[in-house]
Amino acid sequence: MNIKEGHILFLLAVLLWLSACQKSSIKQEQEGEIVYNITYVQNDLEKFTTDLLPKKLIVRFKDDNIDMEIDGFFGLFNISNIINARKKTNITYLSILDKKFYYQGDFNEPAVGFGTIAKLDVKYVNSTKELCGYEAKEAFVKLPDQDIPIPIYYTSAIKVENPNRATPYSDINGILLEFYLDVSKLKMKLLAEGVYFKDIDDGHFEPRKGYQRISRQQMEEILDKLME
Question: What are the structural domains of the chain?
Answer without folding.
Answer: 20-226 (2.50.20)
